[in-house]
Amino acid sequence: MSEGHSSISPPPKRQRLSKPPVIDLTSQGSEPAAASGKLALVDLTADDRGLSTDAEPDEDAIEHRPMDCGTPCHDTVKLASPDIDSPQIKHPDPIPTTSFCNTIPSPMQLNMISELPMSGNQDTITLAHILGDPLIKECWLFNYLFDVDFILSQFDSDVRHTVRIKIIHGSWRADDMNGIGIAKAASSYPNIENIKAHMPEAFGTHHSKMIIYFRHDGLARVVITTGNFIERDWRMSQAFWCSPLLPLDETSPCPMMAPVGSGLRFQYDLLSYIRHYGSKLNTLHDQLQSYDFAGVRGALVASVPIKQDLMTVEEQRSTAWGHLGLKSILDTVPLNSSASSAHIVSQISSVASVGQAWLQRTFFTSLNTIKRPVGQHKTHAKHSIIFPTSSEIRTCIGGYNSGASIHMKTQSTANMSQVNFLKPMLCHWASTTNSSVKGQLSTLKPRGTTSRAKAPSQVQASGMAKWLASKPSLSQPSHASSTLPTPNENAPRRAKRGPAAPHIKTYIRFTSEACTSIDWAMVTSANLSTQAWGSAPNPNGEVRICSYEIGVVVWPDLWKDEDDDEIKMVPCFLGNGPSAREIELAEHLEKDSQAGNRVSDTVADANTPTAEKMGHSRKKRYIGWRMPYDLPLVPYAADEMPWCATSKYREPDCLGRTWDR
Question: In whole angstroms, what is the distance from residue 326 CA to residue 370 CA?
Answer without folding.
Answer: 11
